[in-house]
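Standup notes
- HV: blocked on the assembly model, inputs below
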Amino acid sequence: MILLSLQSMKLMKLVPNAVRMSSTLSRDSNFFFRQLFDSVSSTYTYILGDLNSKEAVLIDPVIEHAERDANIIKELNFKLLYAMNTHMHADHVTGTGRLKSLLPGCKSVIGKASGAQADIHLVDGEEVTFGSHKLLTVATPGHTNGCLTYICHGQSLAFTGDTLLIRGCGRTDFQEGCSETLYNSVHQKIFTLPNHYTLYPAHDYKGVTATTVGEEKKYNPRLTKSLKEFIQIMDNLNLPYPKMIDKAIPANKVCGLY
Ligand code: FE
C-alpha cells in the first residue's frame, strides 16, 4: 500500500504541460469506475479503483451516503486511500470525515485554496496515485477559490466538480464566485484537453451522467459565448439563495465533522 501525505512529496510531483496532454483512447482493464448519485442535492460521487492493487479513491462523497459508499468499497474489497473533494461544497455536507471513521486509514483531501480542514491539501500540478493510476490536480477557480479538476490522463477523463457542468457551469454568485475567473479556468484548463476526454461533473439536474470536452465546446450554452456575454448571463441568473449553504459551508470547513 502506498500512503500519500504532505511529507511523501515524491508521490505528488509537478508535471510539465507536455506530459499532461498525453492520453489513451480506451480504459485499462484494471481501472474501476463507479458513479453514484444523491437525489437530494443531485450530487455525483465517484469511486475509482485499481483492480490489481485494490487501492481506491472516492470523489465528492455526500455525508448521508457515507455508509452506502463504504459498503460498496468493502464489498469490492478495495482499500480506500483518499476521500477527496473537488471543492468546499455549499449544497451538501461532505462525507469525507465520516468515511475516515468508517474506513480507517483513509485520508481526507481538498484544495489548499478552499480554506477547509483536511489531511491533505492539494495545489495545482500535484498528483494523487492509487495503484497504477494517477489523478492530476488542476486548479480551476471561479465557482470557489479552491475548485479543483482532477484529470486522469491515462483513462482520458476528468472530474470537473462545479467548474463545468453538463451544458452549464457552477454558480458564481456566492462563496468566492467570479464569472471571469471561471470562464478562464474552463477555457484554459478544460477546453484545452482533447475533445474525446469524458467529463464527469459534481452535479446534474436533468439525469445526464457525463459529457465530453468536444460536446461542451460545441453545445455549452454559456461557455461557448464570449467572456463579456458569459458575465452578462451569469449576472442575470437570478437564482434563489442556496437552501443548504448556511449549514453546509461551516460543516465542510471541518470535513463534515461538525
Ligand atoms: Fe459547489
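- HV (later): unblocked. The pocket of fe (iii) ion is lined by residues 87, 89-90, 143, 162, 170 (CB under 6 Å). The chain has one domain: 21-236.
- Next: hand off to the docking folks.
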